[in-house]
Predict the structure.
Amino acid sequence: MCGRAVTSSTPEELAEYLGADEIVAVLDGPDHNVPPSRPLPLVWEEVEGAGAGRKLGTARWGLVPSWAKDPSIGDRMFNARAETVAEKPSFRSAFKRRRCLVPVDGFYEWGPATPGSGGKKQPWFVHRADGDPLALAGLWEMRPADGDDPLRTCTVITVEANEDMAPIHHRMPALLPAGAWDAWLDPDHDDREALQSVLTPAPTGLLVRHPVDRRVGNPRNKGPELLEPVEAIGDPALWPEEAS
């Protein structure tokens, strides 16, 4: 599950990190609490025409399939399971030709309520241990929006949780290493088995996490202070390792 993200790197930093040839659209600025239906950075590959190359732009989080009559369907299409993404009607067309990277600086995940928490779930901020952006495996679609303005939308692919994430959730975003980016972004690459083989849990130790204030549950709350560590709620004996 991935339903809240942090985007704090500049477009120039992301373009350099991901090898983008052109920046075609940018976010309004840093956002430390991005919910579905809001814009995320997006990297994709174009292989035809004078504009061919790796692009950095933006997309609304929540994929709207090309056949959907109502764009609001995207409100529940912000994640796609790796196990079914190649067959599910909502995602299979994009999986064949419109794969992308969704670069974020981290994401929030809510752990289970523990004794002493009053039934409240603890949110955790998850990010790379080395501070680099996370290159999440994603899919994108483009369609006319109201007024015929083009609407690019995206979804984040999820896999089973690794050892870093399992104590707080059974799913996690699929993180792609740099060596997999070229093949994943290539629209002409159609080896389904090879593509799905890179959708695996991240290596143990790549990610770190710490508890944060429950104010991140309201997407109207913004600012870098949301990333500050807090004391986790509930029984300390049952907290995941990083809280002790």
Summary: The CA atoms of residues 43 and 56 lie 5 Å apart. DSSP finds four helices and 13 strands in the chain. Helices lie at 11-18, 92-97, 181-185, 192-197.
